[in-house]
Amino acid sequence: MAKKPTPSPATDHTLRDHQPGERQITPTDSRGNGDELHQDVGDGVADPAAYLTDNFGHRISDNQNSLRAGERGPTLLEDFVLREKIFHFDHERIPERIVHARGSGAHGVFECTKAIPGLTKASILQKEGVTCPVFVRFSTVAGGAGSVDTPRDVRGFAVKLYTDSGNWDLVGNNIPVFFIQDAMKFPDLVHSVKMEADRGYPQAASAHDTFWDFIGLMPEAMHMIMWAMSDRAIPRSFRMIEGFGVHTFRFVNEKGEGKFVKFHWKPVLGIQSTTWDEAVKIAGADPDFHRRDLFEAIDAGDFPAWDLGVQVFDEAFAEKQPYDVLDATKLIPEEDIPVEIVGRMTLNRNVDNFFAETEQVAFLPTNIIPGIDFSNDPLLQGRLFSYLDTQKSRLGTTNFHQIPINAPKCPFHNFQRDGMMQTLVPTGRANYEPNSLAEAGENGGPRASAEAGFTTFATNDERNDPTQKLRIRAELFADHFSQARLFYLSQTENEQAHIASALVFELSKVTLDHVRARVVGQVRNIDEDLAKRVAAGLAIDLPAKEKAARAPVDLKPSDALSIQKNADDTMEGRKVAILFAEGSDKAAIDKLKAVIEGAGGTAFLVAPKVGGIKVKGGTLKADGQLAGSPSVLFDAVASILTDEQAKALSEQGAAVQWFMDAFGHCKTIAHDDATQQLLDKAGVEKDGGVIAIDKFADVGTRRHWAREPKVRDLA
């Protein structure tokens, strides 16, 4: 029998040796120029599986930094490590978005309210009164499309402006900073916060081991953690969140002069959050709370609006700051550069089909128009690679731009042809250029324009040597705690307690003791009192302070960073529940409704039963049944009852809980005399927010935070 030949390794397609397996490797830890953690295999390791490689076996020298032209320069297209890593990440899920999977969208209009031609040649900002259509998609980040609306999470705030110069996609969040400084780390961040790979949970939650393990090893994330643990991450409504472009962009004017710019969306209704207990209960009462709120407001004609603001500054300002303006984990305090309002966006139409529009909309940070350009922010540079790539996987075709929600409203012409699901029918044979077909009387197609076409801002030497090719972060990127401390100290005492309590809750879900200790050790670099409160809440000894690569500097607190310091007492856009039952006074109910609606709010009638109920003065139909309309769904509550009905309701758990929750969530409770026995049963104590019905116009829907220490323990 002939000897069976030994198979060539090139024809052995088994992957058994390509898996991580059970190998135990103790890496050598070091810190880079920006204090990023590098974990190296170390010397003399023979096992080839110990080495991190790309998918073709090339060993990787640096898994923390993109390759860029100079320390502060742009990311280079030749970085095959970054390209492959993000390429693979972009195609991990089909067809749901990997992040921002659960979203809500609406159409609207943007209007320029202050022309700034001296700063930018962007057509939409050249003349006051110029308008363009917009489409906005709000979203959570961590959860899948089937998760709920109200987890503690960042909210996506993506705006597509259909300008006469092409689509401008301002793709941001409701928080002005981000977890990481370099796009190289984005797959790792998302992998850590998504449900754990071996068990498939938790869904839409960051309170688990892998996320906090990653965060404890990434001090650059600590500023974002302060925001994520604050009330900004549990908003009351999409209509009441701010939006940020996050990155530093650039304005370019007609003369070719450039300045840096940061973009802000300021909600006209003001910023408002829920409490954590409220967010949890809303998730059970109405998983679609934010989606429903946005749809119903637009459907009722209460069109939400945001003012577009800009912070504009030059390199001279940037050079003087104790942080790097290209670092996405940093912000520019509004006290240093005030936000200048230049436009207003109003959402005035719901989608006709959720899938065709909200699900198929594709946002690209690369969609900019003349007058707006990129900076060398390494996180932004990586996003410019990533977004276009991911649309092919999610939408299935390179022609995704032909889907109506993605198509520009201005003419577009090029020589791109064919491809899967091509819906256009180009005519003629001009599918290349240059060509001379016009000389024979044929249509030769469009051509480039040096004068009118998009041109990139030319300068790339701002504190940067573009002749270098480096995997390195700029030195100021290593300060991870100064702005985290700035954010914490800018909050009210009540908001600081919420941050401390959120950290305790999240870390209490972590089962790895060393991870909890490391995170609290990082928090000590932000504020000692905060770290002590968190340690006490976890019943652990205060761990040693983690080493900071750069000692934090004290920055002047910024009131603009606090929700409560900027609270607006308006009733506009808020929803007030009025509890009634058989025999209630219709005239009193109608009077209260008029007060609420006259101030721009919405009155929602709640009763033990829906349908027509006999009341004093006629018949009244409830908008919602008591057990299905808990008080967590409303901004304030009121009650108009008879003695008999109040007594009966005091024996029903849903009614007692209705008032207990409203009181516990620091909401206004307006009531008549008969309701007092029900309030007594619910343990509601008299304070400035528990008032008579006729005082509601004076107090409104504001939160009464002084009440909170009476109703729950805060860290």
Describe this protein's structure.
Strands 4, 5, 6, 7, 8, 9, 10, 11, 12 and 13 form a ten-stranded antiparallel sheet that branches. A six-stranded parallel sheet has the order 19-16-15-20-21-22. It is of the alpha+beta class and 715 residues long. The longest helix is centred in the middle third of the chain and has 18 residues, at 378-395.
How are the elements arranged and paired?
Layout: E1 28-31, E2 37-40, E3 68-69, H1 80-90, E4 103-112, E5 131-140, E6 155-163, E7 166-173, H2 186-193, H3 209-216, H4 222-228, E8 243-244, E9 249-252, E10 258-267, H5 276-285, H6 289-299, E11 305-313, H7 315-320, E12 340-350, H8 354-359, E13 372-373, H9 378-395, E14 469-470, H10 482-489, H11 493-508, H12 513-523, H13 528-538, E15 575-579, H14 586-598, E16 602-607, E17 611-615, E18 618-622, E19 624-625, E20 636-639, H15 643-649, H16 653-664, E21 669-671, H17 676-682, E22 690-692, H18 696-699, H19 708-711
Parallel strand pairs: 15-16, 15-20, 16-19, 20-21, 21-22
Antiparallel strand pairs: 1-2, 3-14, 4-5, 4-12, 5-6, 6-7, 8-10, 9-10, 9-13, 10-11, 11-12, 17-18
GO biological process, one term: hydrogen peroxide catabolic process
Keywords: Heme, Hydrogen peroxide, Iron, Metal-binding, Oxidoreductase, Peroxidase
Enzyme class: oxidoreductase
